[in-house]
Design a protein that fits this description.
Layout lengths: L3 E5 L3 H11 L9 E3 L4 E6 L2 E6 L15 E4 L3 H13 L3 E2 L5 E4 L5 E8 L5 E6 L6
Parallel strand pairs: 1-4, 5-9
Antiparallel strand pairs: 2-3, 3-4, 6-8, 7-8, 8-9
Pfam families: Glyoxalase
Protein name: Glyoxalase
Organism: Paraphotobacterium marinum
């Protein structure tokens, strides 16, 4: 849907440790660090996710009401993403990982985290069959 999405951080090292741990689970390549612009780039066939120091020199801030959702292929990927995210500096937010019923009864398995900078992110596996 989007070609790229960026979030801000004041600590690229903490962010890199966190995202280097969770992004490969969802199919993103190894971090490409742009030393000129001071940003981390995670690239997949679907697009680019970036983490950057704010270009205006002010402290990074978290979007109120904002969530960035990443697509997962399997429910096990969501669980691994969540577990490794917590162990690498992320914080739990919202309900525990599990099934949610979306629009038109679509069953989704998802988990929410806040990254080390406080950005809210989510991993979602769509169209989970009923057991």
């Amino acid at each position: 849907m989007f070609s790229h999405v960026f979030v801000g951080t004041d600590d690229l090292n903490k962010s890199r440790y966190f995202y280097d741990t969770v992004m490969p689970i969802l199919g993103y390549g190894k971090c490409e660090y742009d030393t000129t612009k001071k940003r981390l780039l995670y690239i997949s066939i679907d697009g680019v996710f970036g983490v950057t120091l704010p270009i205006d020199g002010k402290p990074a801030s978290v979007g109120n009401g904002m969530t960035i959702g990443f697509k997962a292929q399997k429910t096990e990927d969501v669980d691994e993403w969540y577990s490794k995210g917590i162990s690498s500096g992320g914080q739990d937010c919202e309900d525990p990982p599990g099934i949610r019923i979306g629009a038109k009864g679509m069953r989704m398995y998802l988990a929410y985290l806040r990254d080390p900078s406080g950005n809210k992110i989510c991993a979602t596996c769509f169209n989970v069959p009923q057991k």
